Amino acid sequence: MRVLVTFAVDAEFAPWRKLRAFRYIDYDGLQLWRADLGTIQVTVLVTGIGTESSAQAMGLMMQMADEDQHFDVCISSGLAGALDEALAPGDIIAPQLIIAENKHADVPSEQLKVDPELRKGAVDSGAMAADCLLTSNNVMVKASVKRACSSRAQSVDMESFEIVKEAQAWGARSVVVRAISDSAKEDLPINFNVTLSKKQQVSVLKVVRELAKNPLALPALLRFAGQSRKAAEKLAKFLDNYVQTMASDGHVGRSRKAVAS
Questions:
Q1: Domain spans of the chain?
Q2: Which of 151, 155, 139 is nearest to 207 (CA)?
Q3: Is domain 2-186+231-255 in CATH 3.40.50.1580, yes or no?
Q4: What does the pLDDT look like over 38-68, one tens digit per residue?
Q5: Please, which residues have CB within 8 angstroms of residue 178's CB and are 6 or more apart in sequence?
Q6: What is the model's pTM?
Q7: What is the helix (H) or strand (E) element at residue 2, kind and residue range?
């Protein structure tokens, strides 16, 4: 079985790469790695941050899949922010519904459901059975903004809706598994919306510039970096186990052809 796992940035994927001998794949500028977990071939794609970047990366990924191979399963992974105060940094969540942020109040938000059996497998492996995740166009920096969105979803990221949308359109079964990086009650230490590079990665130089504006934010930034790293490490161990269970779980391991028949 072939499984595609996506992360927004390399730092989210790095702990898993330490656990497994992933090999780098050069294809049309995409950041790709591959490893075999028993009978399962795992391909990791680093998409960049945001809806536009993730949609573009997935489009190129699907071109590669059409030329090279298909993927049976797509897992949108990485870190997410909490909107529900019951969620804590390090919690692993598996939402059943993903909604896209809509800036027009009179237009209903788009929504997608993940594959129920894949989600059940994640929950059985120890993930929390979350109801809804919101894919936002911007990093939610302030706790007040998170609170305003808490009636819509329990968590927020910037990629999952586009990733699941592209994967489902192509024919792969999709699920979202994310680790919480920041609680609903905390402000982020700096405005990460202005720290992204042209490749939609966090720019160290731009982070330094933000810190220069407010040096007192450094301790909070270090704390946030530490809890994000721990969340990513916990997620790596979860994914390593979860993906391997797919091989022994008959209904989770069904190919897209079997589902379509």
A1: 2-186+231-255
A2: 139
A3: yes
A4: 889 999 999 999 999 999 899 888 777 655 5
A5: 76, 77, 78, 79, 80, 92, 93, 95, 133, 155, 157, 160, 235
A6: 0.90
A7: strand 2-7
